[in-house]
Specification:
Layout: E1 2-5, E2 14-16, E3 29-34, H1 46-50, H2 54-74, H3 80-85, H4 100-115, H5 120-135, E4 151-152, H6 162-176, E5 187-190, E6 193-194, E7 203-206, H7 207-213, E8 217-218, E9 220-221, E10 223-228, H8 233-239, E11 243-248, H9 255-265, E12 269-271, E13 275-278, E14 282-291, E15 294-296, E16 298-300, E17 306-311, E18 315-321, H10 336-354, E19 360-371, E20 383-385, E21 390-403, H11 412-427, E22 428-431, E23 434-437, E24 440-441, H12 449-460, E25 474-480, E26 485-487, H13 490-503, E27 506-511, E28 522-524, H14 533-560, H15 563-566, H16 588-593, H17 614-626, H18 630-634
Parallel strand pairs: 1-7, 2-6, 11-17, 18-19, 18-25, 25-27, 26-28
Antiparallel strand pairs: 1-9, 2-7, 3-5, 3-10, 4-8, 11-14, 12-16, 13-14, 14-15, 19-21, 19-24, 20-21, 22-23
Length: about 625
Amino acid sequence: MLRVHDDTFSTQDLVLNPAFFPGIRVGDIVAIKPDAVSDDGELASPRNSLDNDSQAVAAAAAAAGAHAGDSAANNKGKSSDTAALGPAANGSTAVDTGEGGEASGNNASAERTDRSHRGSNGRRSEQQQRGSIQGNGHPSRNGRTNGQGALRKPSRWVGMAENDRASAAHAEDDEMSGLRPDTRREILLQVGEVRRDTQQIQASMSNNVARTLWDEYATNQRVAIRKIDTSNAQERESIRADFVEIAFRDQYVGRSDMWRLWRHLSNKVVHNNKPTNVDGLIRASVRRIYKNSAEISCGYIGSETQPIFRSESGRFIIFIQMSEEMWAYQEDGHLCFEKTVNSFLAELFRRWSEKQLNHMVTIVMFSRWYYHQRDSLFFPDLIYDEDHGRYYRDYYKVVADMEVRPDWTVFLPEILAEFNTYRRDIQELSTPAGVRLRGDLSKAHQGNILEAINLGINSFSSNYVDRDLSRTGLSTIVVTPSFGVFDVPKRLLRMTTERMLHFGMRVDFVCLAPRPLFRPPVFRFKSYPVPSEQEQRRALNRLAQAERDARRAKETEINSVSPLAESPGPHSGPAPFVGAIGLKDRGPKAMAASKPGHSIAIDPLMLDPLYFDDDKWVNELLPHLTGVAPRTLFGS
């Protein structure tokens, strides 16, 4: 018989009585299934489903029978209901539930369980007793109540209307897990405490665990408890979780702290919304558990389980690309920017508000404007774009700077107001002749997307200086009206990639255009086609041969003009070579490269399109391979 306790009784998730469970110790893993039914139609006994040792079961049954007989003798002369409820009918019980009715129901159910092991007569008396107690409003066979039973609801639902209660339950389910609580679900728990001082209690579960996994539960419920043998590889694999999502908030958690937290949870059973505290320094909570691509309520963390760490109080930078497509109408008749605010941002902020996330957010609008050459009189800092042959200027407008709000949905009207004035503030130019419109807004694929990302990286590059100990995680979101295809400079793309890898940050792209047939984002850059490894090696060999020929020619020239070659002497023969090779060319690699049959190694970066050096290939290697001068290749 499973009861429910609060933190005043025990802080552990599961407490067992060794008199009823002789084969279980602290730290063992058990599977608990509510309303278990045996083959003969009766409720299965926890002891029968737990231990196969007949002697231990008989001893525990005898002890329970003696206790039931003493209870019946002590209550002689009282009414039939009071005698059946036992000596705890006055409300004094080891598990203080706060209501005398609940305490009496607990003891009655415990005595029914004890009598169920004494044969058919005891089973019939148990059935009669079960019927009388169900009529009094105490827990029935399915764990629910017919009247004023012991069914507990979360205290924050008390006094709420039915619609509000349903909304609160939906929000709670979405917050802690995608799974809804199920009263018929079998759960896994780890025995945290074994107590012998509670004779009336067989097993007791924490009310927080029961509310999380079962939602509707009774303080006295028939369950079947089965011990999991973790030494058996097959049984351990059946309960092992594939992925465990762990969340933390309002603290800085480094990689070393994550490792310590994961080591603390290894070889243990976790369930949804399970709090974890490591040495009072790292506070975290299990949010979701996955096995075989499906979400489960509880699981075992083994050596092959992978952790997923999520921060509920991080730093976010949201970039909104204000390109020309933002003012275009979509198929549903709304502007693209209205789709950004009313669809994406509204849904994102709503989820943050429901889950009570505490992120620090910065919102920046950015765009690129093209100008004519005559506009340089008004804008002296224009930059010339060689690819498009036009002058441009980049603009950035900070809408929210490192703000923390409990509800970001109230900030949406301010974002819409900034959109209404963004284009006018940039394009209108006051001149002595009046207000003139200058500049043309670029397309999304021509925008300053990498420049904006590097702007966000700059704010994260010095986060180790005066670190915020209440924030963990850096994330950047780029909202663009394009398909996710951008024309970017090759060197800038390479620098951005290296900086992102160095600081360990991520960038999420939100494309408002219809989904393309490829996976965005795609960055296009101009580059010479990367030659094969054989072509590059052949070009390097010819370059080395040309260098050797030039060196020999220089040696011959030096020897021909040397005074030693012209002065007669007692010793005849060729003059010795006088240092024509520098010190840096006398190493082992230089000597090996000077051999005609030596194979030159290719730099792996020269095979990567992003790191391929166009200038070196076109100006140094390709002329030796084709025999054509670099000027002819470029047409200049």
